[in-house]
């Protein structure tokens, strides 16, 4: 009797999973090159959500959204958010990470945690100052939904999240594999000093990595705000943690691993949230969905410590 | 203790928004009908205002203290209690003067801080003229302070503390006229069954002491009343995607979703539930009572029902009149707790009056006042009816139902 909700559960899991996947890309790209975990990445995602929501709110209050095609509006919002969060990522790298590049590995990690607190409270402060509250509700651009008979209804916005996430992932893969800059990034990931001997400007490549990773994170923020409607300055923490987990699950440093890991984690969470309660007769309810998903993660890492795609070292960014 | 204080701060803050909507509703009603003692001007410092009428006050001074936050971010609520109490006291000054006593308000600022509350309490019990305390606003402050009141046999009547622990500790001096936290759950469940007529329910909580505690009580009552429970699930605070648990809900299609938790999660839950096509009732506790609930849930907020231990005095004609008088006389805005402060003060003053009479018109002892207050039965205050039980809880305390319209919450009535 529970199976009739399965399609719905899968759709919800995929929507969530693709968001994890795109954010996980940001973690995994930086790790691939610097072997350093950029814990502020979740906050960049959050800033993206706020920038996107503010753009929509402001243009809505100016009446600019009237009659505008929602796809155009979303596209413009995404561009603005990506440019700003990309610049933010590059700025953070320049100020908080680059001076510490030679330092022991824990030092930039602490710096990243510091940046993440800073961003949270900066956003909270600015929003509280400007709007007197820091919970924002995003205007919804897409309200419709596609009905698959009685099996499931897919909200348009969820579908858009999935489609855009796939588009972003494909373009990133193409960029890394086919362009000169992509090749340079892979070279730096493999060996920084050799790459620099081959006239590759390592600093520039690292900047580019942060630019791409952060703008992807920012774009996901916009999609998140569209999909769930409500954002606050603390959404980056849980989502960032889970995206990081997804990156580890797929094999950190590996792009394909991050994508698969994200989707897998989203699906696991959604499935366990919906079915664990009924299957265990209420002994383990939906509140244990994270426990379940992370137990799977531990199991995978026990038997495959390098992650699902960890072996493909050659392919790491 | 921290937890309790947190809950009571929350409910206090939430109650403000109720009060504000209440105010808006009465602003156009006439304030012309003056009754007996209502017209006298407010006295901000009663302790310095002498006995104006010239009547003999040789019986002595009787001070009734208030202990509420008068500074800091909760001061609007604390001041409402103080002002309500002051308003009650001023109305009865003459009555006591005839007996030869000068009653004075002795307002204290506990700053919503347990340490300050306790040191104020020490000062109060060492002052022999102090015969009672109206307070506190925060349960976390009331509980440690009540230890001192117990030592000094000083009667305390709380207008606002809902924490269960306060009266469960068995202190004789502790009383409250509002309902306890654990009254909310059973009353909410009864309301759902009797008034909304639900037969099946799905309970979701936020895994906090407040949310899960409330949900457990609702669950117990549902089981007692034979409402079929289709699910009991927890969610994580701070998450924005609750589709996993809501898919279970839509599979089982209950008559009501009861949510034990606060508005940030509640708002998202109801919004996402409606998006998934859920048509039944959505209900919660006073954690849903906030204007932000409307912002978060958007249109989905319409029809959301919640319970609260704070009622709206302006719902009756008589209450409206009282509120108008109050605002005119005190020149202060009406908050939900104004009338609770007013009623608390009257409970104490009645006790003092009884004790004076029992003592043959002489100044009574604190024990006598305590006894008299403790025996309060069927006292009809402006808004609450007060009968204290053995623990000092008000057996007539009500839980109130509110319902969200598109852009505000409206008072529905008592939960029965």
Provide structural commentary.
The complex is a heterodimer of chains A (317) and B (416). By secondary structure, chain A is mostly helical. Helices cover 72% and strands 4% of the residues of chain A. Chain A has helices at 6-34, 41-61, 70-97, 106-131, 156-178, 180-190, 192-197, 202-228, 235-250, 255-279, 289-303; strands at residues 136-137, 145-148, 152-155, 230-231. The N and C termini of chain A lie far apart (45 Å). Chain B is an alpha/beta fold and 416 residues long. Chain B has two domains: 2-27 and 57-180 and 313-397, Response regulator (Rossmann fold), CATH 3.40.50.2300; 182-308, Response regulator (Rossmann fold, 3-Layer(aba) Sandwich). Helices cover 44% and strands 17% of the residues of chain B. Chain B is built from 14 helices and 14 strands.
The number of E-state strands of chain B comes to 14
Oligomeric organization of the protein chains = heterodimer
CATH topology of the largest domain in chain B: Rossmann fold
Overall strand count of chain A: 4
Approximately how much beta-strand content do the residues of chain A carry? under 5%
How far apart are the first and last residues' alpha carbons of chain A, in Å?
A: 45 Å
Give, in order, the helices and strands of chain A: HHHHEEEHHHHEHHH
Would you identify the CATH H-level superfamily of the largest domain in chain B? Response regulator
Number of helices of chain B: 14
- For the record, the count of structural domains of chain A works out to 1
The whole-number mean of residue pLDDT values of chain A reads 88
Please tell me what the overall shape of chain A is.
Answer: globular
Structure characteristics:
heterodimer; A: mainly alpha; ABC transporter involved in vitamin B12 uptake, BtuC; two-stranded antiparallel sheet; B: about 425 residues; alpha/beta; Rossmann fold; 2 domains; five-stranded parallel sheet; 14 strands; about 15% strand
